[in-house]
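Two entries, shown back to back:
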Amino acid sequence: ARYDHYQAAAKSDDAVVVIGNRGVILVSQDQGESWTRQNLTGSNAISFPTLVDVDVCPDNHFVALDTERKLWISDSTGKDWVAKNIPTEEEVVDLDCDPAGNIWVVGSFTLIMSTGDKGESWNDLSIAEDATFSRVQFIDRTHGFVTGEFGSIYTTNDGGESWAPANQMPNDFYPMASLFVSPEKGWVGGLQ
């Protein structure tokens, strides 16, 4: 639709999913030749969640994140979605499904949360500092990165059990996207 604002895309073995504002989910099961559209509903019949990120987990199911602090879960077809509440008051910004199948969510006030059971229970590993984390990425079962406001970088080498600060990016850099390819090498892009 003309007013759609798409935020992210992900691909399973069975489908490509594109998510965006007003709960819009586009699904293609033929590599983008044709698309079906659906709108998820929010807390009432006339509201729609603003979806901000989507990923595919190792078992091939989709997970999506909305600004109403909900995790949306679908199978590999991307057709049917179920919402799970994320127990936080903080703003949620980004998610990643790690190679072990754990789902990670980051956001305001250095929020770091994880679930290993598709949102039934959550672990809060937040740093409790006044900054927003904007990106989380695991490159393998043990190594992960979180980047955020004021040039902050936190790393884990134990699968997310603990997070330690790394050298900050200079000039209060605000990262919006990052890609790490090893524990030593990555790229970060952001504002300004």
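entry 2 starts here
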Amino acid sequence: LGAGLTTIMGGIFFCVSLNFDFLLGTIVSAALLGITIPYSILKRFFPKWKKTIIGNAGSYTIGYVLSYLTLSLIKQSGKTMPEGMLMVVMGVVMVPMLDILRVIHKRVREGRAMLVPDRNLLQHRFVRMGIKPALTPLSIIVLFLLFACVNMVWVMNKYDLSVLALIDILLWVGIQTSITYLIHRREEKIHRKEWKLRH
């Protein structure tokens, strides 16, 4: 999932940088894709690679590269690129960023340690909702592309950016509310079934 999302982020950043002649962004994005695409292929189709993980060092490095690309593209806004590149970039990084903020808020609210694992990350919520684990990465990628495409189309058409920010927030809240409802409904059915079997 991480490699897949990183590949999509790198691909979008590469296309935007290439389209607006941002040479350094194009080179860095291409380098990122040169790492994540082969890794995704090896992990998907070669059994010996299935248990490999990117690890903390790899995650930090990819995070730094994505951060550089994010800040660089925003800095080019209004110069080589159209105004509103902040919202294009936000559309690309919005799903993982908002999900992490939601998880941190939930852990703080419940008084739990930050580094203790739980089942509240987006991929776990999709599984709890009833989506098969094999389809969960694809579902998250579709959600990710939804935000990225909406923001890119909106900015390229030079619509009001304040309205776009409101749409993003409402879309995210609506999606999370729907997921929570579906999780509760499914888990209630499971508990009811278990109660009947025991009694």
